[in-house]
Amino acid sequence: MDIPCAMPMLWVGMNYGESLNLKREDFFKPTLLKKCKSLIDTKSTTMKVVNEELGSCVDSLFKPIIYHTDSFPTSILYEAVRKNSIIHWTPKSRLFLFHSTEDNMVPFLNSEHLQKEFEKQHLENVQYDFAPYGNHMRAAVCFFEKVYQSL
Predict the structure, then answer these.
(1) pLDDT at residue 56 tops 90
(2) Region at 107 (left for phi over 0; alpha for psi -120 to 50; beta for the rest)
């Protein structure tokens, strides 16, 4: 996993944003529980440091319950994720989708699925820019350059 902090941050964000009232102890392994306050709950640590501290294996962070999507309390979390999905969503204003086909952090398959969904809806207010712009960070620089040039 290229961004180990993504999973705990997703869990924390969904739990807070959707008022799920899930208990960290039910999902997080003791090593993650100990590091949450200094790494996940703060904005004083860079993602690079957080990722280095957490390692790259989800199994070392979460208890096996995280994979039991149909059982309580995990089902509550997965329902919140489904509810916040952009699938079956229609943008109301113009939308520019940019994604590198070489992205090493966010699977390009996500953008392909979204494009297919939007094409089924025959949306004319969506513009796509999918190309081999390099890894996630390199593509981010390309994206910001394109936005700056369009201003």
Answers:
(1) no
(2) beta
